[in-house]
Design brief:
This protein has 324 residues and is α/β, with parallel strands linked by helices. The protein is built from eight helices and 15 strands. The strands form three sheets. Strands 3, 4, 5, 6, 7, 14 and 15 form a seven-stranded mixed sheet that branches. A six-stranded parallel sheet has the order 10-9-8-11-12-13. A two-stranded antiparallel ribbon has the order 1-2. It is globular. The mean pLDDT is 94.
């Protein structure tokens, strides 16, 4: 077996989870300012199955056209195996990253090349499963709240999809940032989990309209979106802010004109940042934020991980175990 190859999961055509195939491929070589990471674990995220489906969930004008074959995945945790010219990292260092996002990360593999600036040192207190679960979901919540929304202390915030990857981290970051009250919206099976994470109130969306239980909130952070997203809007007061994580039908004209709600003035996008990831790591090590990993799959069973993701109702994150 050649040392210049590695195991990776690729897709040669867009479609159902079965298009994900484990095979041997050339091992990447780090370029200037890059490190080659031996991947111990890789996170599973919505953009992974969006790519697998050919981005059919996005409006046609926003769909990327990725070249095939494609290695999906953007969250990696592992150790530095080699460095390119002028890299600041050392062989053997424990690291993790959201790789090249927005863009092509190629994380479902034994090795991945990562730009120096995207890497953060993985604290000794965190294992690689946590290191792989945190980057995309954590940076989405952290960057959205800390760098873009910047909610004032004391607000009432509603987190829809609070048990999922982004939702359970956003809930905790809101509490750590001084929110007065955080209302978690999820199915009833997740109530205890979310209260343990710090939710002040819990609303089971399967028991009736959320707007019957919550009114006059200042912020709606919606980690679900979809065609029924507009049904959550009555939870907000006039002047309340809508913060969508994914695409959804918010009937924006009516929401702004009739309900007096505020939407982002531009499309917000999470981006790779080792600096921001290190800030998140410190919160996790301190105990202010807990990262929930709901299930771990071997790399060879990436298709099974995608099938589980499509069933929905996740608690935290799915992770691929790549190598010890």
């Amino acid at each position: 077996m050649s040392v210049d190859t590695m195991w990776a999961v690729r897709l040669h055509a867009f479609g159902a989870p079965e298009v994900l195939v484990r095979e041997r491929v050339p091992r990447p070589v780090p370029g200037p300012g890059e490190a080659l990471v031996r991947v111990h674990a890789a996170g599973v995220n919505p953009p992974d199955w969006y790519a697998r489906n050919g981005y059919r969930n996005l409006p046609p004008e926003l769909r990327p056209s990725p070249a095939l074959p494609l290695i999906p995945g953007s969250d990696v945790s592992g150790t530095v195996a080699a460095t390119g010219p002028n890299s600041a990292w050392q062989i053997g260092e424990r690291v993790h990253a959201l790789v090249n996002f927005p863009g092509r990360g190629a994380g479902y593999a034994e090795y991945a090349t990562v730009p120096d600036a995207h890497l953060a040192r993985l604290p000794d207190a965190l294992d690689h499963l946590t290191g792989a679960a945190l980057p995309m979901a954590g940076l989405t919540a952290h960057q959205y709240l800390a760098h873009y929304l910047r909610p004032a202390p004391g607000i009432t915030a509603v987190v829809n999809g609070a048990a999922g990857g982004v939702g359970h981290l956003a809930l905790q970051l809101l509490k750590a940032g001084g929110a007065g009250q955080v209302v978690a919206v999820a199915s009833g099976r997740h109530e205890r989990f979310l209260r343990e994470l710090g939710a002040d109130r819990f609303v089971d969306y399967t028991a009736g309209p959320v707007a019957d239980a919550v009114r006059d909130a200042d912020l709606l952070l919606d980690a679900v979106g979809g065609p029924d997203a507009h049904r959550l809007l009555p939870v907000l007061r006039r002047g309340g802010r809508v913060a969508p994580v994914y695409f959804g039908d918010y009937r924006t004209e009516h929401a702004v004109g009739e309900l007096g709600l505020v939407f982002n003035d531009r499309m917000w996008q999470v981006r790779s940042s080792g600096t921001d990831l290190a800030e998140l790591d410190a919160l996790v090590v301190s105990g202010a934020v807990r990262v929930a990993v709901t299930e771990v799959f071997p790399l060879a069973e990436a298709a099974a991980a995608h099938r589980r993701a499509e069933q929905g109702h996740l608690r935290g994150k799915l992770v691929l175990h790549v190598t010890d």
